[in-house]
Design goal:
By secondary structure, the chain is α/β, with parallel strands linked by helices. The protein folds into three domains: 165 residues, AICAR transformylase, duplication domain (Cytidine Deaminase, domain 2); 149 residues, Cytidine Deaminase, domain 2, CATH 3.40.140.20; 48 residues, no CATH class. Helices cover 33% and strands 21% of the residues. The protein contains 13 helices and 15 strands. A six-stranded mixed β-sheet has the order 3-8-7-6-4-5. A five-stranded mixed β-sheet has the order 12-11-13-14-15, with helices on both faces. A two-stranded antiparallel sheet has the order 1-2. Strand 9 and strand 10 form a beta hairpin. The protein is globular. The two termini are 28 Å apart.
């Protein structure tokens, strides 16, 4: 297949639309089911690059959950604890493959943002992934292959219209890439910058103890940032992105946005949230929405009289601001990466409030000494990568 006609471009008025190879060669994908659109393919190609690089850098199966050309979450395939299974709606006795664990974790970073996502897998999609996706709202998936059982399950989604794309795992893009904006063509070299443990060797803080898991987490953070609309900051724990702040004009706003998402991820594991008893008629998406509101300052919208009866089997107690703050304060061992340097120590101050212990950023600010001083104040480990990771 040398070209694929799309229904329309970014918006319905943008016609005609298609994808093709400028050199006339075959496309590196096969559409096994459905009819992916313009934005679907942007998500597919960005997410595939992310998971492929994560697998290469860590040796672990990797997955991503994309929305609007940025990852809502990304993760490597480490096992799920019983608590993780509960907050991600996985049966306690479910048999999960490593690639299934990766996708469940990726989607679990920010389940509200992942509603209607594009899924990406570094490895062959098996039935374990497909069974989980069957109950989730998703637009499509890209992977290097699919088992027969997985294909059968996925082809039944969305009344048979679920988008399934198979990528040639050996495909290598051209060295130069082009993009047209307002009738003007931009050309640049493809971003082949390699992110691995070697990139983390320049530790600039007094504390230089960077354990293996923290290295994995920082790599997950940096590779996620490489394919996130800039400015961007990413919090990671146990091989899983737990907060991505994308496309903000201010670095501190990235840090706050991602930190707030990381806090919400951790709040979902609190005794108050785990104890919520939902009506059995509620869908996963409805439960996710209810949890999000319950943890917010608008909790009366779900626990107020006349409201809770539509959601819960019994009325929950209010999750007070003091209780939430106390729970978040128990979070620790989190890693954070930034796609450009932190210009002020306020980013470190905000990151600390979400349990950050490890930091990776390019360095190069005129205030690097103040940023390092702030990290040292909290005995953090911070590495300067020397490489900006903007993506637009």
């Amino acid at each position: 297949m040398r070209e694929f006609e799309l229904k329309y471009g970014c918006n319905p008025n943008q016609k005609p639309a298609k994808i093709y190879m400028k050199d006339g060669s075959e496309l590196p994908v096969q559409i096994l089911n459905g009819r992916p659109g313009f934005i679907n393919f942007l998500d597919a190609f960005n997410s595939w690059q992310l998971v492929r690089e994560l697998k290469e850098a860590t040796g672990l199966p990797a997955a991503a959950s994309f929305k609007h050309v940025s990852p809502a979450g990304a993760a490597v395939g480490q096992p799920l604890s019983d608590t993780m299974k509960q907050i991600y709606f996985v049966a306690p006795d479910a048999e999960l493959s490593p690639i299934a664990c990766a996708y469940i974790r990726a989607r679990g970073a920010d389940r509200l943002s992942s509603f209607g996502d594009w899924a990406a897998l570094s490895d062959v999609c098996d039935a374990s992934v497909a069974r989980y996706l069957k109950s989730e709202v998703s637009d499509g998936i890209i992977a290097p292959g699919y088992t027969d059982e997985a294909l059968e399950i996925l082809k039944a989604k969305k009344k048979g219209n679920y988008n399934i794309v198979q990528i040639d795992a050996d495909y290598v893009p051209a060295a130069q890439e082009c993009k047209d904006v307002f009738g003007v063509t931009f050309e640049q070299g493809h971003n082949n910058f390699k992110i691995d443990e070697e990139l983390l060797s320049n530790i600039v803080t007094a504390n230089k103890d960077l354990p293996r898991q923290a290295k994995i987490d920082l790599i997950v953070s940096l590779i996620t940032l490489k394919y996130t609309q800039s400015n961007s900051v990413c919090y990671v724990k146990d091989g899983q992105a737990i907060g991505v702040g994308a496309g903000q004009q201010s670095r501190i706003h990235c840090t706050r946005l991602a930190g707030n998402k990381a806090d919400n991820w951790y709040l979902r594991q609190s005794p108050q949230v785990l104890a919520l008893r939902f009506l059995p008629t509620l869908s996963r998406a409805e439960r996710d929405n209810a949890i999000d509101v319950y943890m917010s300052d608008e909790c009366e919208d779900v626990i107020g009289e006349g409201n809770w009866q539509k959601i819960f089997a019994e009325k929950p107690a209010e999750f007070t601001r003091e209780e939430k703050k106390a729970w978040i304060a128990t979070q620790s061992g989190v890693s954070v990466g930034s796609d450009a340097f932190f210009p002020f120590g306020d980013n470190i101050e905000r990151a600390r409030k979400s349990g950050v212990q490890y930091v990776a950023e390019p360095g190069g600010s005129v205030r690097d000494d103040l940023v390092i001083e702030t990290a040292d104040k909290y005995n953090m480990v911070m590495t300067f990568t020397g490489m900006r990771l903007f993506h637009h």
